[in-house]
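Hello forum,

I keep getting stuck at the same step: I have a sequence, I want structure tokens, and every attempt I make locally crashes halfway through. Rather than fight my setup again tonight, could one of you with a working pipeline run this one for me? It's a single chain of 101 residues.
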Amino acid sequence: MSAQYYGARSENGDRIDDPSEDALFMMISDLNNSDNTFVVVQPDEDDPVWFTSVAVLDDEDAYEIVRRDTTCNEHGITMATSVNDIARDLTIWMAARDSRR
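Reply #2:
Ran it on my machine without issues. Output:
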């Protein structure tokens, strides 16, 4: 069964359909520099119009967050250190994408 809204996939192959804020927190917390460096979240569609990704940076205490939405020409790259803040902010950002459907 596919996700109703979007799916999160990590480099090591983990996938969660319609992840909650807590699920995103866990996936981001599991990132490391050896074999699981990023998580991508996007709609479960053939040609998604938006995506967001979180990648662990070299020092493993900071993350790069990319948000891209082609429907409103949005493309942003930020850095953060708090996994809790990242998961919360992404949950809010993704909810705004779904509310436009």
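The chain has a mean pLDDT of 91. If your local run keeps crashing, start a new thread with the error log.
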